[in-house]
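Bumping my old thread because nobody answered last time. Still need a sequence for this structure:
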């Protein structure tokens, strides 16, 4: 059995004092992987970069509809240039809540009287075609959007944004709190795996947070709790990650290579997940139930993911 462990750090990376997100009238000159024509929008050029192997930044020229995916952050020679816009992809690695950040454009409409960020997320979930959203708490307005990151992602005070795929395929969340929506607190829960079992045994529990320092476990009535947020020292998980074709738990699939070692006598997949949570640099696991062996790994998907082949 195999699974992916996702570690979420909601941060924006910077280059000196410059924000590495949307740069208007700015060219990341050089380091081109090629040039793609007929790319109408900045958001489409971003998608070209996502789909191009080795692409870490890009420049778009709206007047000519040309897009240049690049193999170096900031290109070879970044500098101001009228009529072109650029961005580093590392700004977009972590798709959770982006505070004071606008996913501008690509709106599916505007919904009024939405008081909280979480309620805006629910608007997006129930809006056909919505893949991201922006919420403005001062006006209680919510903007569901049909494009990840909108058309032009950029810093903006007073609005918060998120991609919905942050809420997909996410098992173990290290240093992340599913705050609120508690069904209670259970003491003396020594491991993440035991907290998982508490949730399974608690009526109405769909997610949980565990604090290993205090051995406390909070089963919860809402996926991601009421307010999901980074918090050092607690780890969280949604229960529906346990199975199904959700990209998380992968039966008969091997994340071969990138091992941090092999741990023997691990009785369950959940216990292997706990091994990963306690192993420095662990980002994914492979578990063989027939031998109770667990392999924590330092790369997502290991070095060579593929259908399971018998280990020699």
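Sorry it took so long. Here it is:
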């Amino acid at each position: 059995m195999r699974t992916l462990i996702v570690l979420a750090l909601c941060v924006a990376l910077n280059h000196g004092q410059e924000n590495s997100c949307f740069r208007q009238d700015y060219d990341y000159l050089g380091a081109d992987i090629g040039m793609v024509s007929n790319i109408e929008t900045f958001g489409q050029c971003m998608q070209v970069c996502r789909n191009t192997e080795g692409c870490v930044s890009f420049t778009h020229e709206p007047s000519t509809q040309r897009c240049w995916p690049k193999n170096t952050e900031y290109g070879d020679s970044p500098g101001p240039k009228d009529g072109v816009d650029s961005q580093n992809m590392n700004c977009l690695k972590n798709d959770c809540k982006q505070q004071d950040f606008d996913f501008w454009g690509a709106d599916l409409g505007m919904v009024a009287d939405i008081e909280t960020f979480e309620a805006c997320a629910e608007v997006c979930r129930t809006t056909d075609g919505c893949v991201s959203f922006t919420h403005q708490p001062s006006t209680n307005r919510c903007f569901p959007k049909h494009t990840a990151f909108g058309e032009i992602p950029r810093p903006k005070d007073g609005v918060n944004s998120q991609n919905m795929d942050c809420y997909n395929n996410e098992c173990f969340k290290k240093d992340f709190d599913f705050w609120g929506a508690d069904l209670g607190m259970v003491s003396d829960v020594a491991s993440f795996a035991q907290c998982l079992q508490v949730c399974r045994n608690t009526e109405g529990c769909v997610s949980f947070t565990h604090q290993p320092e205090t051995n406390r476990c909070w089963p919860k009535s809402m996926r991601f709790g009421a307010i999901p947020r980074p918090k050092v020292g607690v780890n969280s998980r949604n229960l529906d990650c346990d199975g199904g074709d959700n990209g998380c738990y992968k039966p008969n699939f091997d994340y071969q290579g990138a091992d941090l070692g092999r741990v023997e006598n691990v009785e369950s997949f959940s216990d292997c997940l706990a091994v990963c949570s306690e192993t420095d640099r662990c980002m994914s696991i492979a578990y063989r139930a027939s031998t109770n062996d667990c392999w924590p790994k330092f790369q997502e998907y290991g070095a060579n993911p593929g259908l399971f082949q018998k280990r020699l």
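The two ends are 17 Å apart (CA to CA). Let me know if any region looks off to you.
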